[in-house]
Amino acid sequence: MSHSTQNNPEILAKAFGAVLREVRKERGISQEDLGFESGYHRTYVSLLERGIKSPSLQTIFELSRALDIAPSELLARVELTTRRKPK
Amino acid sequence: MSHSTQNNPEILAKAFGAVLREVRKERGISQEDLGFESGYHRTYVSLLERGIKSPSLQTIFELSRALDIAPSELLARVELTTRRKPK
Q1: CB-CB: which of B65, B76, B79 is closest to A3?
Q2: If you count Cβ atoms within 10 Å of the first and of the last residue's Cβ in chain B, which end, N or C, has fewer?
Q3: Considering the entire predicted model, what is its pTM?
Q4: Is A10 touching B (CB cutoff 8 A)?
Q5: What is the structure's pLDDT at A84?
Q6: Interface residue A28 vs chain B (CB under 8 A)
């Protein structure tokens, strides 16, 4: 098992952001709704989705709770996203 | 699905730390080895394992790579640990 190509901080933040946006849209909620549910400002949600900010463990759990997805499932989708990208 | 009891920052950091230590010991490596492999100082590994520090997304991925475990699997074990705890 190799995760070496996933550990570029920018690629990782962008992959997380893309998954966050994808799951949020699947839920049919706005950035504002997600912000409200998770206790963050919608601008922070926007920064995360664009991969400009990277989340902490705590943030991953807060967002997951608000999106009704297991944190491990969110990361599993991030892993898939990073594997799809060319090196 | 409810993750609300997992989102206390201290409980979450302690749960992550406990899983990190557990997986590291399963691998039979020292904190120093894990630090070396993941690019962190052994004292930081120790702080994480004791739940004093909480990891970023990037750190979760770096540690997972060093432990040869999927980041999602590491978080799945954290979820199990937090669910085992009383409220």
Answers
A1: B65
A2: C
A3: 0.89
A4: no
A5: 59
A6: no
